[in-house]
Design goal:
Shape: rod-shaped
Distance between the termini: 58 Å
Structural class: mainly beta
Helix content: under 10%
Order of helices and strands: EEEEEEEEEEEEEEEEEEEEEEEEEE
Strand content: 25-35%
Number of domains: 2
Largest sheet: 9 strands, antiparallel
Length: 404
């Protein structure tokens, strides 16, 4: 049975467990078992407890206090000395197996004190701020349309973490936000759209990406260039694929990249070429002698307002109707000079039919980051900075960087 002690006492040693209510020890106190203090307690000398100690009231020790096992204090703890407090010391491998928010220790591997942050699920050096989550939209450059009986080009790959549902490229589910570490530099690459072509296949757009230490690089693939030079064959693959082209029969569109975009449309007879794929829809098939339209892009509100990007380019036709560009900035197909994809939309350019005409160039890509304003470091290069509610948005229309 535990020993119960009340009031002022000269007892200085308890051989078993102790439950104490309002005692005052005039000398040293030693408890060989566990100690529970239900109210206020004062020890004018030193206190030694061989096992656990629980204090639900207040405990004042004028000398040294030693607890050989664990100490639980239900209220606040005040340490009024001018010396120091020794916290647990150990290597990274010796961290607690089940850490909880508020834990502190000195890490001998890193040489720094650290605290556990439950929101990020990691140990943070005292000199560092906690990591924070950043949403993204990464759109690659669009392909350029095929030139001379050319098909529509595919849009650049489209990846996003912002929003809910199947609103990332290829109508896939949104991805997880990135976790940025303060002080780390993140490199932003914005892919160029492919240049216009004459009497040849269109070019593929360039990739866009976010990279940096501690994250998996987010890369969106450039859109597939349209088939041209009056050559029969399937379209070219990319973030979204380009349309097929041929004088007869059916040539399939090029494949899109899973999680980023859609395939291009099929060719129909007599150079009714296929439209390029978009982030939100497959490129249209040629029908009879008519060319296919570009596939639609996808809308995002990551900047605070809804903007549609990454539409496919329209195909060209020899005798029928040329295809229109897909929603989001896709270029129109034409008998003469075709239309380019919109700048910073990642949209594909339109195909042209004439042997001396120019196809539509691909639209350049874009990278957008959205983060809590309270976490925004203010250190970036190459971005346009705006706000929406409690968030800060960085829009990179060209390559740059952000230091978290």
């Amino acid at each position: 049975m535990p020993t119960k002690v009340k009031g002022t006492t000269g007892v200085d040693k308890i051989e078993s467990n102790a439950i104490i209510t309002n005692p005052v020890f005039s000398g040293d106190a030693t408890v060989s078992g566990s100690l529970t203090v239900a109210n206020n307690s004062t020890v004018s000398g030193s206190l030694t407890v061989a096992n656990n100690s629980t204090v639900s009231g207040s405990l004042t020790v004028a000398g040294n206090a030693t607890v050989s096992s664990s100490l639980t204090v239900a209220g606040d703890a005040t340490i009024s000395g001018t010396g120091s407090v020794t916290i647990p010391v150990g290597t990274t491998a010796q961290r607690p197996a089940s850490p909880a928010s508020g834990m502190i220790r000195h890490n001998t591997t890193t040489g720094s004190p650290e605290w556990y942050d439950s929101s990020s699920g990691g140990w943070i050096n005292f000199s560092s701020s906690a990591p924070y989550f950043v949403d993204f939209l990464v759109v690659a450059g669009g392909g350029s349309g095929g030139a001379h009986a050319g098909s529509g080009a595919g849009a650049g790959g489209y990846r996003t973490s912002y929003g809910t549902g199947n609103i990332s490229g290829g109508n896939s589910a949104v991805e997880s936000a990135l976790q940025f570490t303060p002080g780390t530099v993140y490199t932003i690459t914005v892919g160029a759209g492919a240049s216009t072509r004459v009497n040849t296949n269109g070019g593929n757009g360039a990739n866009s990406s976010i990279s940096g230490s501690g994250i998996s690089t987010i890369t969106s693939i450039g859109g597939g260039g349209g088939r041209g030079a009056a050559s029969c064959g399937t379209g070219f693959s990319g973030g979204s694929g380009s349309g097929g082209a041929c004088s007869s029969g059916t040539s399939a569109g090029g494949a899109g990249t899973a999680g980023q975009g859609h395939a291009g449309g099929n060719n129909s007879n007599n150079w009714g070429t296929g439209g390029g794929g978009g982030a939100g829809a497959v490129g249209g098939n040629g029908s009879g002698s008519n060319a296919g339209n570009g596939g639609a892009g996808l809308a995002s509100s990551i900047t605070g307002s809804s903007v549609t990007r990454a539409g496919g380019g329209g195909g060209s036709s020899q005798t029928g109707t040329n295809g229109s560009g897909g929603a989001g900035g896709g270029g129109n197909g034409a008998g003469g000079t075709a239309t380019a994809g919109n700048v910073n939309s990642g949209s594909g350019g339109g195909g042209c039919h004439g042997s001396t005409s120019s196809s539509g160039a691909g639209g350049s890509g874009v990278v957008i980051l959205r983060m809590p304003t309270a976490s925004y470091s203010g250190t970036q290069s190459g971005a346009t900075v705006t706000t929406s509610g409690s968030d800060t948005i960085l829009t990179f229309n060209s390559s740059g960087s952000y230091t978290a």
